UniProtKB/TrEMBL annotation:
It comes from Ktedonobacter racemifer DSM 44963. This is NADH-quinone oxidoreductase subunit B. The lineage of its organism: Bacteria, Bacillati, Chloroflexota, Ktedonobacteria, Ktedonobacterales. Its main location: membrane. Its EC number is 7.1.1.-. It is a peripheral membrane protein. The gene is nuoB.
């Protein structure tokens, strides 16, 4: 007599539910067989371990910081390791407006990142100049670097950055290539604030 299982009296489902029969995984020591392609494994591993460059330009960067904090937790997708050196980063999140003076610096940081690399344009300012339709702000960073994912909004919420990040992961897993490099195609070269020879 008596209850052998101390948890038996605890009802874990409502009176109208029938308990689900969960399939049990039997550990019998045998190896499972998994077949795939090397390219798929590489794409999957790259998409699951993106390291963003530590790079924020304006107010959007505050939302980017929130995305890494505990409430939204970008670490769930393997991208919490923001790198202070572009040589250790494979993702550039352009968070905020980019001034014409900053454009050569942004391009230089992009050039210093090793291949393969990706770019997210975060916010209206980075994507198209936003409310700053003037001579001092680059009207879309896709004039400087090839942008893989654009995120609208002013500012985009951390949820939106997470969604954009997931879209980038999907692109990588599906093997979708980067867009063409705007500077390479145009033949222009950004050489510095005093010698900027392109009309942005
Ligand atoms: S999009 Fe809005 S929040 Fe982001 S940098 Fe521009 S003004 Fe700031």
């Amino acid at each position: 007599m008596g209850i052998t299982n101390p948890w038996e009296p605890v009802q874990t489902y409502s009176n109208t539910q029938t308990p689900r029969e969960l399939p049990m995984h039997q550990k019998d020591g045998s190896f499972g067989v998994l077949t795939t392609q090397v390219s798929k494994i590489l794409d999957w591993s790259r998409s699951s371990s993106l390291w963003p460059a530590l790079f924020g330009l304006a107010c959007c960067a505050i939302e980017m910081m929130s995305t890494s904090a505990s409430r939204f937790d970008l670490a769930r997708f393997g991208a919490e390791v923001y790198r202070a050196s572009p040589r250790q980063a494979d993702l550039m999140i352009v968070a905020g407006r980019c001034s014409v003076k900053m454009a050569p610096v942004l391009r230089q940081i992009y050039d210093q990142m090793p291949e393969p690399k990706w770019v997210i344009s975060m916010g209206a300012c980075a994507s198209c100049g936003g409310v700053f339709n003037n001579y001092a702000i680059v009207q879309g960073v896709d004039k400087i670097v090839p942008v893989d994912v654009f995120i609208p909004g002013c500012p985009p919420t951390p949820d939106m950055l997470l969604f954009g990040f997931n879209e980038l992961q999907r692109k990588i897993r599906e093997g979708i290539p980067n867009p063409p490099d705007p500077l390479k195609d145009s033949g222009l070269k950004l050489v510095g604030p005093s010698n900027t020879n392109m009309d942005l």
